[in-house]
Amino acid sequence: MLYHTSLDSYYESNFSLMQHHDWNLSDIEDMIPFEREIYITLLSNYIEKKNLEAQQAKNANSF
């Protein structure tokens, strides 16, 4: 576990990855801490991009 991550945040991230993205807990826990951080960052960026695209599509359709 990364030292700058609170215990609550660690478990919340694991729960979200398992429930919303179908990741396996053993796969998450077997990651090297920096590897886990990279995957979470990539996933976060992907979600932000999809949300932005959805918002832009919604705005384009409202005109």
Short description:
This protein is mostly helical. The chain has helices at 7-21, 25-29, 33-61.
Explained architecture:
This protein has 63 residues and is mostly helical. It has one domain (7-61). The protein is built from three helices and no strands. The longest helix has 29 residues, at 33-61. The protein is elongated and about 50 Å long.
The percent of residues in helical segments reads over 70%
Cα distance spanning the termini: 48 Å
| H and E order | HHH
Radius of gyration: 15 Å
Contiguous low-pLDDT stretches (5 residues minimum) are: none
Average pLDDT, all residues: 89
Count of distinct strands = 0
Beta-strand percent range: under 5%
Give the number of domains. Answer: 1
Describe the main β-sheet briefly: none
Q: By helix and strand content, what is the structural category? A: mainly alpha
Q: What is the count of helical runs? A: 3
Shape: elongated
Question: Any chance you could write out the topology, listing elements then pairs?
Answer:
Blueprint: H1 7-21, H2 25-29, H3 33-61
Give the tags.
63 residues, mainly alpha, 3 helices, 78% helix
